[in-house]
Amino acid sequence: MMVTGVGPALHQFGGLEWIIFLVIVALLLLFGPSKLPELARSIGRAWGEFRKGKMEVEREIRHELAREEAGGEVVAPRDQVLRAARDLSVPTEGREVRDIKLDIAKAIDRVDNAKVIALAKLFGLPVEGVSAQTLKEQIIRRLAI
């Protein structure tokens, strides 16, 4: 005997489907249908911030591991190297990071002190009371060429 109607359709739902359904009903009752898009946007923004924070933590971990591998010396991550190359008008397209670092080291001697200070800040170096020449040397050391 075949049973038709709503009964068999409800038996097809598992535990997870019921939980999702009850959450949606609870959200509709609590916030109303007009507030749901705003709630969804808020959840989306929060999720985006969470992902951004997670990526930042992962980047910091990679940076620390690279520093440990270099014997305690801080090594500039790839994104900092590429930003410095862009600031110095060093071409990056289709080139290896090592070659880009060499060109940055060559170009840094030809820039003015303001640009050296900006690059030092980009690499996270302290600039107060430090000469431009010392900053250049620290940047080149940070490149780990």
Q: What can you see in these coordinates?
A:
The protein is an all-alpha fold and 145 residues long. It folds into 2 domains: 34-72; 76-145, no CATH class. The chain is built from 7 helices and no strands. The chain has helices at 6-11, 15-31, 36-69, 78-87, 97-107, 113-122, 132-143. Helix 4 crosses helix 5 (97-107) and helix 6 crosses helix 7. It is elongated and about 75 Å long. It starts with 5 loop residues before the first helix and ends with a helix. The model has no long low-confidence stretch (mean pLDDT 82).
List the main descriptive attributes of the protein structure presented here:
elongated; mainly alpha; 145 residues; single chain
